[in-house]
Amino acid sequence: MSPIHDPEKALQALAAEEDNMKASRLKEKIRHSLMSEKPIHSEQSSRQPSLDEKIRHSMISEKPIPSGQSTRRPSLDDPTALPPLQGPSAAESASARPEPPQPRPTLLQRSRIYGAAEVSTAHADILFIWCCIISGLVDSTIYNAFGTFVSMQTGNTIFLGLGGATPHSTSKPYGWAKSFASIVCFCLGCLVFSHMTRIFGKLRRGTLVASFLAQTLIICVAAAVVQGGSVNGSLDTITDDIDWHTIVPIALLSFQSAGQIVGSRALNLAEIPTVVLTSMLHDIFSDQKLVAKDNVKRNRRVLAFFAILIGAICGGFIGEGTDRMQIPLWIAGGLKLVITLAWAFWPKKQDSVV
Q1: What are the residues whose beta carbons fall under 8 Å from the beta carbon of 258, sequence distance 6 or more?
Q2: Please, which residues have CB within 8 angstroms of residue 330's CB and are 6 or more apart in sequence?
């Protein structure tokens, strides 16, 4: 064959040769893909397209090249002619990235969460019935020793009124001063405990535990003062003159007794005031459902009345048997400590499902 001297014809020959090479590579690629394909099932079409038909279909399905652009097809061997790989976007990468593990809360953080939880009011009346027993126990003991009350402020008001008229003609000289101290300290206790309840949350576990723990410590301090000899612990301490040291346990016990009624009001248990009998008796016998079968408030009032009575009876027998007032006080402090621990493990209030 004579050499081709026309450059245009030489380029066409090279292009034709390159097209033949591409066609052969395409045939090899299609043949390789056909070999890797699964056989056609009998329910499908039994006729398989020939190799030439597949090549023709592949060439027809390609997009036409617009005029003015190069007719040269990109080569598979040329990496610059292939389209760039599309990687995941930044947002997809961020969402696919695993989140770092959350740090485990410390003991202090868990304690704060546990203390901030609101407690359930179901069966909370049981704890305040025990508070009524404590009131009767302490009041009977203090009255036997000092001739005054630390919970029942109605009686103290009467003693205060009688003190100015008969300062020395009664069997309890200067009893009005003790009653006055008890009334003042009870009012201060109501002020402190109610403000603490409003500030920190009346149903929070931490608030109730702190309130009853403070009451427990105050009772124990009063018992320790008597136990240590700073105050005469004998029940026969009423003389013609007053021992002003006795104001210390009276003031402490009156202050802590206010925490009980504040707690009962905070938990909507006003029918168990723990320190009042007159209004409780009124509410019992003026109830329209006095003889009804199901009357929860009436049952609570009756139980509270008998709890105070039982506590007073126990205080009288313990005082007569030991002739010392600190023993009933230690018992009262132990009972209030049990109530404090009960609040610490009381069930949490369940969230209402709407």
Answers
A1: 186, 187, 188, 189, 190, 192, 193, 275
A2: 220, 223, 227
163-189 per-position pLDDT tens digit:
766 655 556 667 888 999 999 999 999
* Contact assessment for residue 125 and residue 272, using Cβ atoms and an 8 Å cutoff: yes
Query: How many distinct helices (H) and strands (E) make up the chain?
Result: 12, 0
Question: Rounded to two decimals, what is the model's pTM?
Answer: 0.69
Contacts with 7 (C-beta within 8 Å, 6 or more apart), sequence order: none
Q: What confidence score (pLDDT) does residue 45 get?
A: 46
Beta-carbon count within 10 A of 127 CB: 22
CA 137/CA 140 separation, integer angstroms: 6
User: Per residue in 263-311, pLDDT tens?
Assistant: 999 999 999 999 888 889 999 999 999 999 899 999 999 999 999 999 9
Residue 109, classed as helix, strand or coil, is: helix
**Tokens 């709890």 correspond to what residue?**
307
CA distances from 158 to 38, 152, 154, 163, 252 (A): 106, 11, 7, 9, 21
Taking the CA atoms of the chain, what radius of gyration do you get in angstroms?
47
Residue type, 47: R
| Contact present, 119 and 351 (Cβ < 8 Å) | no
Residue 324: φ, ψ to 5°: -130, 135
Give the angle 164-168-173 at the CA atoms, nearest 5°.
90
Q: Say how far apart CA 312 and CA 142 lie, in whole Å.
A: 11
Who's near 194: CB < 8 A, 6+ residues apart?
262
Stronger pLDDT, 10 or 139, i.e. the higher one: 139
- At residue 234, the 3 state secondary structure works out as strand
